[in-house]
Backbone:
């Protein structure tokens, strides 16, 4: 029998196996001949007070070894005449939908416009070093989707939407460390994600599924309120039964295609702002009360939120020990986002600071593209202001708040380079004023945050989709087209790797239920 033991200790003690064993013995009043077997169940840091604590939950078994944390999911080979589901997009949503299809005995056929993870890496290098953007292969497009070269943060607020534990267990099964099952804020890291994505691909192929790279959905043929065929790369026409559309928030050509075909779309609120970068040591100093370079503590993170003029302004996708990356998908725009390696050991720390944008901020509030057009306009303005390359406009943080152009900068991790611009002139007043006030508020919450030793990079604009593809909340079917399942971030139903993966899994469950009346399979 296993029991759970909860206590707090210092960061040093939490890494000391001998201390933990003594603590278990003492708390459970074990006799000397009894052997405790124990492992971490949950781990979180409480850095609110000067005396930093680790909240520990251990699983303990006395005299018998602990059973494995979870039983692996078994992906059986598909039958030759298995039913088929077509999936467009090999991001977390598309890949987890494909895995779930195999668990249901349905054959997934996946089309991905970008390249496989390895080939994709070369395009990222060209983008960073030579400013050459491949519109089909970049930080957003390619195997693994936008999540592949990311921080790989795996926490989600949308726990009610589905089985978070299943997503984490599958990630461990495909190579992630078990730590992601334990940590309050788990993450994987850019250096580990590609192998994991490759392992998922291998599993899909071994079971009999298909994945086609450099295969872009270019048209849909609609008849009788159903999509009858899809067109790939402007040529091959493929008959389909059901189509899962998992194309992510940056597939603007998909929004255009659907609109052209008179498929219902709606405008969706999203968030936009800047990415701010401090040094990690500086953030550690604030968050850990001056306790710098502590080998027992991970690089510190932060999560900030405030209300300005009845609108939320908040930190988004904070990357401790991270790098700011060029995340544009078209040539005449710039976009920033952040990633970090598994050890989070870069000297910088960055985070998006974004303002909620509502369709009602604009005159034509019901136009499905009203928020998308605004997002595009800001990205293009930034591209123009920084010299029409992949350099981004930047300003020191205090200068941003003071509306002053910066004359010198600390170093920035953004490799394509930065150009000094007064960002007040880029953003409309309703965005700039809220960002400005938010930085002042954040300085109250994290004294020292507002400093000219930090650099603001613009824009942070791909936070979520600015367009919604409406679907029935119960069946996930598009409100007009019964065999179209718009899912995850691109359709407006997820924000982040885990919630996208959950939506992928759930969409397959809806399809299996619709096709065969099947319930979710047990693990084996
Ligand atoms: C640099 C960066 C860092 C991030 N860090 C994190 C993080 O730490 N944690 C987190 O939770 N989230 C992070 N995100 C966000 C996360 O990556 C997304 O929320 C997630 O990937 C969304 O999954 P998805 O499957 O819905 O879409 P996507 O991952 O966007 O995948 C969509 C896929 O569809 C493909 N596609 C698009 N159009 C077509 C077409 N016409 N035909 C065929 N294929 C098409 C694309 O190439 C892409 O591969 C980050 C994003 C970026 C860019």
Residues:
């Amino acid at each position: 029998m296993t029991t759970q033991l909860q206590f707090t200790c210092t960061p040093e003690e939490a890494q000391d196996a001998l201390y933990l064993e003594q603590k278990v013995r003492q708390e459970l009043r074990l006799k000397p001949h009894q052997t405790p077997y124990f492992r971490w169940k949950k781990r979180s840091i409480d850095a609110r007070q000067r005396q930093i604590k680790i909240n520990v939950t251990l699983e303990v078994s006395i005299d018998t070894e602990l059973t494995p944390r979870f039983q692996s999911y078994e992906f059986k080979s598909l039958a030759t005449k298995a039913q088929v589901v077509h999936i467009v997009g090999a991001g977390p949503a598309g890949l987890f939908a494909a895995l779930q299809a195999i668990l249901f005995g349905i054959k997934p056929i996946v089309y991905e416009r970008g390249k496989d993870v390895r080939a994709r890496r070369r395009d990222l290098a060209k983008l960073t070093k030579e400013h050459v953007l491949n519109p089909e292969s970049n930080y957003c497009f390619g195997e693994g989707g936008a999540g592949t070269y990311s921080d790989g943060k795996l926490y989600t607020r949308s726990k009610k939407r589905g089985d978070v534990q299943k997503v984490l267990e599958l990630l461990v099964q495909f190579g992630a460390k078990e730590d992601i099952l334990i940590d309050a804020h788990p993450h994987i890291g850019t250096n580990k994600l590609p192998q994991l994505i490759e392992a998922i691909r291998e599993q899909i192929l071994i079971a009999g599924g298909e994945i086609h790279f450099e295969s872009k959905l270019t048209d849909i043929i609609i008849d009788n309120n159903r999509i009858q065929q899809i067109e790939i790369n402007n040529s091959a026409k493929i008959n389909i039964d059901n189509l899962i559309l998992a194309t992510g928030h940056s597939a603007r050509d998909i929004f255009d295609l659907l609109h052209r075909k008179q498929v219902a779309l709606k405008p969706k609120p999203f968030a936009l702002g800047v990415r701010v970068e401090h040094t990690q040591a500086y953030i550690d100093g604030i968050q850990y009360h001056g306790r710098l370079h502590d080998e027992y503590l991970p690089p510190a993170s932060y999560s900030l939120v405030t209300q300005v003029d009845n609108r939320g302004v908040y930190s988004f996708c904070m990357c401790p020990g991270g790098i700011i990356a060029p995340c544009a998908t078209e040539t005449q725009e710039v976009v920033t986002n952040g990633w970090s390696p598994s050890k989070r050991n870069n000297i910088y720390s960055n985070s998006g600071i974004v303002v909620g944008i509502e369709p009602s901020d604009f005159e034509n509030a019901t136009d499905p593209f009203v928020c998308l057009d605004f997002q595009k306009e800001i990205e293009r303005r930034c591209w123009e202001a920084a010299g029409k390359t992949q350099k981004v406009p930047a300003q020191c943080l205090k200068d941003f708040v003071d509306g002053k152009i910066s004359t010198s900068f600390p170093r920035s991790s953004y490799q394509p380079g930065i150009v000094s611009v007064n960002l007040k002139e880029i953003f409309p007043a309703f965005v700039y004023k809220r960002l400005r006030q938010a930085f002042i508020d954040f300085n109250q919450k994290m004294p020292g945050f507002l400093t000219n030793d930090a650099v603001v990079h613009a824009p942070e604009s791909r936070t979520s989709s600015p367009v919604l593809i409406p679907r029935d909340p119960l069946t996930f079917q598009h409100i007009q087209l019964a065999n179209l399942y718009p899912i995850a971030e691109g359709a407006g139903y997820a924000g982040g790797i885990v919630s996208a993966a959950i939506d992928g899994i759930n969409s397959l469950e809806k399809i299996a239920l619709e096709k065969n009346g099947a319930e979710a399979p047990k693990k084996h």
